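USER:
Make up one protein:

ASSISTANT:
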Amino acid sequence: MGVFTPQANTTVEPEMQILLPPGFSYINARLTSPKKTIEGRLVDYYDSLESSLKQFANAPIDVLAIGCTGASYLVGREREQDLVNRWTKSAGVPAITTGLAVVDALTALRAKKIGFVSCYPPSLTEASNRYWNSHGFEIGQVAGSFNKDSNFHPIYSLLANNASEALAQLSVEKHDAIILLGTGMPTLQTISKAINPNGPPVLSCMLCLAWRCVQSISGRDLEEDTIKAWSNGEGWVPRLKARQAR
């Protein structure tokens, strides 16, 4: 996998290492932007992504994974699909955004009413809601974990317990699925503690992206039982526990 990660993101790489099953690996490139605002940088990442492909040179990648969800909200459904088609043509392999990976996961689950844990400022959360609505999903409860007081980055400075505290605010059983938004907020520990095979799946953007890319490389259909297995921690939870025990 060739993975694009936003410039200051500290979560994509370690979580991808845990999520990927044996036999799969990735190399990473950074999306960079001089823009001063979060929104400006996010759009700039997508505007400049095609030129950033040269970071992978002739590496033998089988799929291009864009580990950034916020940009999809801001460019919108139609332009995102146009960009994905263009990136796929330029890279010569399927390009998968995190936003569309989540859409594919929810579609496979036949989920309609979705609860969200948002790590974003209010304006980006609103853009997120519009994006999910455009794909036909009903917005249920939304719990926030935005860290506006961080000196580093209001999203990337979040800790695993931020997601857990926000998830606890939701009535999980009232939704068909729960999505922990963003690729910058650590989520795997939260998901591992929330696993309930009899309840609605709790997913994250990173989990959906890893699942979608593995399905693409393996040539497998996007079936309900596969994303349920991932949401129930099949394979990756033991790797998470082994990492935490070090």
